[in-house]
Write a structure and sequence with these properties.
The chain has 297 residues and is of the alpha/beta class. The chain is built from 10 helices and 11 strands.
């Protein structure tokens, strides 16, 4: 069987006939029909029954479609994986990281350090859970994510850095004179945080649920500009991360960072998918990333 024959057969099924499938494939109907007939000859069984209403799959055709669809999908998956392996061998490294991680770790400096050696770091910034998904699906080679993955048995995980969640309030807010704040203090306040695609949201929400508190949100979005606007307008209490206290990383005017009294760790992990091919170059980079592990912030 030829790959094109199999793909043409699947297309004829998906598009509901020879003519629409031929148009989508930029073939003539005659060429597509000939390809399918040849596939039937090789399989020595009819795939379609020709009826007045059009083509209909035979019982054998239904089973063949199931098997051929699986086979073609597997082919393309393997082809893509080999393409990614080839890219690694040529010095292209794919790394997915959660938003905010580039503010906590010197990834841009690392990218610049690699270039003179002919290496290119393809950096993909994503919401926490999507960054994890990219590693699981092997779209990328390495991941820097927040917290352990949802299915840790699928990954090799190395803890790198620990920061903590903190509250961000305007200087005009009554809480601004405090030295710390508790999650219970958020009850009755408008909370400004990331969306459920981010672990910071789940950390604060799970702690509130543990204490029997229902939080009211003014914002659940990755929109950093809107986050800062709400803080500057004193329209709620933001959920931030302790590294935001570094002046060059935190630009909200008239804002104060307050540590939470509860232990709310925001932890960065280096993850790789078990069984995913890592070239010697990528393995060396992974070892370099592991040297970034430091004590608690």
């Amino acid at each position: 069987m030829d790959l094109h024959q199999m793909e043409y057969f699947v297309a004829a099924c998906d598009y509901g006939g020879i003519t629409p499938a031929a148009e989508a494939l930029f073939l003539t109907p005659q060429a597509l029909s000939k390809s399918i007939r040849k596939l039937e000859e090789e399989l020595d069984a009819p795939l379609f029954s020709r009826e007045k209403s059009g083509l209909a799959l035979t019982p054998f055709g239904e089973k063949a479609l199931e098997e051929i669809r699986r086979l073609t999908n597997e082919y393309h998956t393997v082809a893509l994986r080999l393409k990614h392996i080839s890219a690694q061998e040529k010095g292209r490294i794919r790394l997915a990281c959660a938003f905010s991680v580039p503010n906590a770790l010197p990834l841009e400096k690392l990218r610049e350090d690699l270039r003179p050696n002919g290496l290119y770091l393809d950096l993909m910034e994503l919401p926490d859970l999507l960054a994890e998904e990219m590693v699981q699906r092997e779209v990328v080679d390495l991941g820097l994510t927040i917290g352990l993955p949802q299915n840790p048995e699928l990954f090799q995980c190395t803890f790198l850095r620990r920061f903590r969640l903190c509250a961000v309030v305007n200087r005009r807010h009554p809480f601004s004179s405090r030295n710390s704040i508790s999650v219970r203090d958020l009850a009755g306040e408008k909370v400004i945080t990331k969306s459920p695609y981010f672990n910071s949201y789940h950390i604060i929400e799970q702690e509130a649920q543990r204490q029997g508190i229902k939080l009211s949100y003014a914002l659940q979005s990755p929109d950093e500009i809107r986050f800062l606007q709400l803080i500057e307008n004193n329209e709620g209490i933001g959920v931030g991360i302790t590294f935001m206290g570094v002046p060059e990383l935190f630009i909200a005017r008239d804002a104060v960072l307050l540590p939470f009294e509860e232990e709310l760790p925001w932890e960065i992990y280096l993850i790789t998918r078990k069984g995913h091919y890592l070239s010697p170059t990528v393995q060396k980079l992974a070892e370099r990333l592991k040297t970034w592990k430091e004590k608690d912030e």
